[in-house]
Amino acid sequence: MAPGVSADDASTMLHSPQGAAQCPPKMVGSLAWDAASLQEADYSYKLTGTHVQEINRALGIFKDYELDGPDISPKTFPLPTLGPILEGFAREIHYGRGFVLITGLEPDLYSDEDNALIFLGMSSYIGLDRGMQDNRGRMMVHVSDQGKGPAGGTKASNKPSPFHTEFFCDILSLYVRGEPASGGNIKIASSWQVYNDLCKSRPDIIRTLQAPDWTFERYGHIFQHSAQTHML
To answer: Where is this region: Disordered (predicted)?
Structure first.
């Protein structure tokens, strides 16, 4: 196999008009990893007592403004010492291993509204723009057993969710308020490592994924893949 290429070179090859037929032989960088190469300490961060106090103060400040959830931002939810750490996590998500786990809060100590505001406030340091979660335009949805059965969708029942990927977003953020008696597991993988594995074992799949004729459906809307865009 030819030597690997850097992330910048690979990006150029993948997204240039000529790049569709020039798959890089290997993606090299922090975004390429497998489970064996990671330790929990690499990606997990536990909030300190000082950070929790800072979050509580920020929550009070935001509520004093009498603003709505969409108005929450680093300016209206100030975290003087935790904020820079969260901004560092944003860089890690975009340019490092691609994910981070934050622990240390006790959701049971807060109301439903306060939990939502804390989630929005902290995540605003990671990414301020929020995407539509459903065809009603909601930017945040709750995953819980609401007794609606399969017709209500897996996020509203205790039915198992089929294996799927989250797409149409740059960053997926989850706030876990409690653990189920069973299930509820989430698996993540490095797309760069998946690419590298496919290059070794099934390069034909790479060529299929690069084809410019994919069609996507989202909330009843059909998106035709542009011939100028090549996605992995």
So the answer is: 1-21
User: What's the Cα-to-Cα distance from 110 to each of 69, 113, 118, 176, 177, rounded to whole Å?
Assistant: 16, 8, 9, 13, 10
Tokens 């820079």: give the residue. Answer: 84
Structure tokens at 107: 């959701």
Residue with tokens 């399969």: 150
Residue bearing tokens 């960053």? 171
Q: What is the distance, to the nearest Å, from the Cα of residue 115 to the centroid of all Cα atoms in its chain?
A: 19
**With contact defined as beta carbons under 8 Å apart, do 89 and 126 qualify?**
yes
**Per-residue pLDDT reduced to its tens digit, 164-217:** 777 667 888 989 988 877 777 788 889 999 999 999 999 999 888 888 777 776
pTM: 0.77
Whole-number pLDDT of residue 9: 45
DSSP structural state of residue 215: E
By DSSP bridging, strand 101-103 and strand 44-46 are parallel
Alpha helix stretches (DSSP H) within the chain: 7-15, 40-43, 49-65, 82-95, 112-123, 191-201, 203-210
Which residues, in sequence order, are CB contacts of 36 under 8 Å at separation 6+?
Answer: none
CB 55: neighbour CB atoms within 10 A? Answer: 21
